[in-house]
């Protein structure tokens, strides 16, 4: 009964994420990401994403020290993201994958270029982008899991609930920082920008990259 309840909860979380995002991850990205030869790069970039997620939460804690609820939620989120980072590292060690340097995708940087500079717009946009990134991560874990080996499939499914909670935490904090009309308007703008990033071509495969570009013809 406990397993059934957990599966139902994960399914509901995945449905909420799919409803939130403007588009699904293109099949071409899933097929490329699931190829065995691409998994080392994907895992390295996944580890980087977990570090960046923790760093974002800590940066918000440093910048907005007067917001008690934000401090508590970001503190918990940072701890969870660092725990996920440790789990990815353990998987990499078991597979003899060296943690080498890989370039970041254009995804997060392009989204953060949309952030307004003046407060409280800066905070609202940063929180909404946090929600979008967490939602996309959750959606991609679910999309990849059926195509991976047992260890990675189990691991990615185990991350779904926490990633879905993170996206909901970011949304709740954004709603507290601004009126519902402003949040809805900015969210639609940012979701549209995000959809453009994941549906357009990217030359390098990363966890949040767009559709893999076709190799040049000779």
TrEMBL record:
Transmembrane segments: none annotated. This is tRNA-(Ms[2]io[6]A)-hydroxylase. Pfam families: MiaE. GO terms for biological process: tRNA modification. GO terms for molecular function: tRNA 2-(methylsulfanyl)-N(6)-isopentenyladenosine(37) hydroxylase activity.
